[in-house]
Design a protein that fits this description.
The chain is of the alpha+beta class. 13% of the residues lie in helices and 28% in strands.
Length: 184
Amino acid sequence: MPRRRNAAVLAGTAVLATVLTPASAPAVAVPTAAPASARPWPAPMPVPEPVMPAARQDQLTITVSTSPEGVAAPHTAPRGVRGGGAPTRRTHTLDCHPAGGTHPDAPAACDAVDRASQGPRDPWQPVPEDAMCAQIHGGPATARITGVWRGQRVDASFRRTDGCEIARWNALVPALPGPEELGE
């Protein structure tokens, strides 16, 4: 069987010659240079490198308020309740991914918020009305967290009025102050 050549232009940039040989031998494709007239015009634009999205930055403002735990004199206060003390109010900013802001321990606070937000409960949602909670009082401290976390607006209030609220608060320690920082 005689040899035949068949030329084709692939994607307008190269010519491929196919050489046919006897039936016992496989066909062989031999690349050749494309003639100048077969090259596309204008030349294709280079593909730019993919642009990496900017690092996520979550920003929260944390305001913690305390008030006197008791108004009675220390000798008449119920056991476990401290009397006196002036109310305080502290506000910190917390930037995460990367960690920063005015929070005294931003990296640990960011880790705590990350863990809490990956848990089974949304840390920004209040305790459900029908929740059964232990009736223990964790003190008069309250907190409000506002800002943006994982692209979602956050406006959540926290208190330590029962077991469920204390557990919700403690899930965010050290973003929120722990019992020792609150004087408990």
